[in-house]
Amino acid sequence: MFGAILLIGLPIVIVTGLLSFIAYGPQFGQAFPADVGWLHLPYFQWPTRPSWLYRLTQGLHVGVGLILVPIVLAKLWSVIPKFFTMPPVRSIAQALERLSLIALVGGILFEIVTGVLNIQYDYIFGFDFYTAHYWGAWVFIAGFLSHAALKVPVMIRTLRHRSLIEVLRTRAADTEPEAADETGLVSDDPDAATVSRRGALALVGGGALLVAVLTVGQSTGGILRNAALLLPRGRTYGDGPNDFQINRTAVAAQITPEQSGDDWRLQLLGGTVPVALTRSDLAAMPQHSARLPIACVEGWSTVQTWTGVRLRDLAAAAAAADPNSALVVSLEQSGAFKEATLAGNQLAHEDSLLALKVNGVDLSLDHGYPARIIVPALPGVHNTKWVSSIEFVRDGT
Predict the structure, then answer these.
(1) Is 390 a residue whose pLDDT tops 80?
(2) CA–CA gap between residue 277 and residue 261 (Å, rounded)
(3) CATH superfamily membership of 240-393
């Protein structure tokens, strides 16, 4: 049963994780790791519709991954004797199975531990989390596929052997051990059962349900938002209409009020001549409002109403109509996401904005004042805050 659940859940985590890598724009060299050799995924422009696409994919990646943790641990517990079989290798076939187990168990434990720690404590590792998580994922995927190919027939045969309804009706007092078979997991002299099979399923299922209650609110919002106790990232709030999650504060980014004061100018590059606009200049341009989500790689998301100038209008103001891409640079001087490249479809979308306001008021400094990027379905870290310049690129030049 545990294996059947993981056979459904783990592919969801795998696919959504790889989609997250694509959403970062590896074709611009800004996904991590940037150079993955022959393991690179197909390059394509990440869609801007629906606007909640990244919120869905990354929410599933983090949410389902966390919910599966109790099931992964239970699955490992159920096969502990296999890890201590002596001699460890008796044949070439068993050696291949052992190798797949090393990749599977080692890979999934590495992905779980580093993933959970990255959610709770940002950048605590002595290595780049994104790079390690990506390569660790491929080790796990190789182990998962090979192990599934070997064990799915056994799983199907075992599930057919015993009725689930029968299992759910059987108490601990009536529970009997499995008959000895070739797996070697059944003791030669088993003690009386201390828990029924339905009890084991209920215990693990209850653990998974508890994790779900404590995590899904960060992505779905609503009344479950306050129950997301295991995921403190994004719990720094602003004031009034700016009262929503902040992943990186102005203090952490070393943004000073002087940098964002009256002397601030937005530099528009890529046209015939550079254009510099004050915040008053931007406010005098046609304004557009859109209700859009921000979704973070850690799994949390929030939906707010943003107001500002369309990016395609800024391209026109810079005499760089129909750009293929644009490099957005922040006032932030350090950090992995002080700049981001946007694709042509992201620039052209009618709701892609250089936002000046949120929920009808000026952005707070923590939320990116004097101006920030908001693009539908874009990973949160690429919705650059404290924008200092935008360089539009046309025809690959």
Answers:
(1) yes
(2) 13
(3) Oxidoreductase, molybdopterin-binding domain (3.90.420.10)
